Amino acid sequence: MTTIRREVLTLPAAPLGTDNPLPPLRPLDEAHRIDDRDRAGLPRDMARQVDYAPLRSLLPAQVRDGYGRERRGRELDALVIENDRLRATVLPALGGRIASLHHKPTDRELLYANPVLQPANFALNGAWFSGGIEWNIGATGHTTLSCSPVHAARVPAPDGGEMLRLWEWERLRDLPFQVDLWLPDGSDFLYVGARIRNPHEHPAPTYWWSNIAVPEECRVLAPADEAWHFGYERRLRSVPVPEYDGVDRTYPPNSTYAADYFYEVPADRRRWIAALDEHGHGLVQTSTDVLRGRKLFVWGTGPGGRRWQEWLTEPGTGGYCEIQAGLVRTQLEHVKLEAESEVSWLEAYGPLDATPDGDWHTVLRGAEDRLEAALPRADVDAAYGAWLPYADAEPGERLATGSGWGALEVLRTGWKLPGTPFDEDTLGAEQRPWLQLLRAGSLPEPEHHEPPGGTLVARPWRDMLETTAATPLAEYHLGVAQWHGDDRAQAVRSWERGLMGLRGAEGPAADRWPLLRCLAVADREGGHHERAADQYTQAFDDLCARRSHGGNGGEETGGDARWTAVAAALGREAVGALLAVGRTADARAVWARLDPATRARGRFRLLEGELLAAEGRTQEARALYDEGFEVADLREGDESIGLLWAPGAASGGTSHALKAVGERAWRRQADGNVTTDPTPRPRGPRTRRSRRPDAGRSGCGPRVSPPGRR
Q1: How high is the pLDDT of residue 694?
Q2: What share of the chain is helix, strand, coil (3-state, %, to 5)?
Q3: Which end of the chain, N or C, is less packed with Cβ atoms under 10 Å?
């Protein structure tokens, strides 16, 4: 009998902290963009989809960068769906991640189950963690919902039992989606019915990749003789499978450097991918044909890949790779979902036993025969046909609550979305100002100098902002929406009008820093760096003044979490802008007013090293690095340490001593051994792409990642 129950999963976990309160106005730093030299050789449909609606902005999402690396035991709400053969453990507060898929007859875990929860800067909006099965929707990359709650409920299953439904509103593309987990009685396979709907009156770009982490000591099988290889030098090229460059790449440990392999599965072949260990045991994923793509991602066995894996878990944990399934050939593509339409499919996950070693085609035939015996292709299609009428079934008992953004959109439009109710009782504090704009035509003014919340940027909300009373707060949000719509001149005018409206104002409406910060970003993006530095200085001064007598605690007490987060985010941007124009004294003044706890964070110690170097205090900068620290939120591709220590990268006042340190650090980077910690510890994570000419050989290039001290 299949059961669904609540459970508590206890893991060492680093807290997510507070989201960055500043709107992400700067262009999205996304690694999955290809070199123009490769476009001419792409199939026509792939080239068209690569160019179709790539994501340019994170708005309306906010950046999640408040996490650290101090892990403590934490209880996580889990939902378990189980029959006599399989047990799946789902984390509804963390994007609906399947954290574990356990095969009971063999007592085998089929996934890579991370023993810790350690956020790192891999999602489109920051915080992401490794392990299990995740549902990547929205745009190229790990979804912004990686560490966010989703709705969950029991629903009727086609066999008369129960399914576990997960659903949420994806905000980057404004699309609702659902994932139904169905485990028929006696089945060795977990069925996953998935659906994305476009309720709009216009087409929308969509994206989906189911991402499955499995132990890397395996061979990955997929029915293909070629693959599209994507390296982080941004080259996309067709390569043979299984051997490429003299190495069988279907064994993840054979790859030294990180890489994506998007398998070219022939149109008439069954869609499946498997990872089998040396004994021939492992996991297989298969689906209906709509889910066309299959992919292998490897970290590589080089020092960069090893350190990234260590960074995401705890010492002694084995490595992992990812096998994936998506709507198109590669993750560089997006699909047009027509107006008032939907796309749906069914996946199946379960154990597979087959011979992994030997001639590629012989191994594939053997594995495909074993899969057909265990779960015939026709049965997958039949299961999809049986599930589809139940996709609209109304949920029963609610087991978890997601965000209120879907409820707000349903209230605005009156859309009927059977099967995925977005009820009004899910509306919360984040939606409240927008609900008032919708119903009363005005935005409420924040109380006690509260930082403004996030901005809704879709065209209907922008239209409402354009017709509401032109308060400074409304002008702020309108400018953010216009900036997102690439109407930058109008955005600047809106922010300037907001400042004009604050002249002589007192009370909560007098906060100038949000508008000044937006203007500073606009100036910096426009190449007006001195003016940007001025705007940032004024913004930080105003923030400190408001914070000190806004009723939320002064700088001595640290204030509440939101004030600490906004001061940290604005201070970090301000110091960077001031250093960019050589105003070290002003940068030091901003630094001195940051909370001591903020200054102690690894990201800000890195910033302090840059400040010390710019001030010519090279011995102190070197001592800071020798002491060692961790930068919890360093992103793939971040060049900040490399730029600081690179020969000649610092300003003209930099001493020969610092340049000598830089030369040594640069050489160590090229070898994959850079760290700010002088003691012999595992080295810091490295990036998976580089612009250096030799990046394809080094795999990581001259970029450094979080320092190596644990």
Answers
A1: 30
A2: 35, 25, 45
A3: N
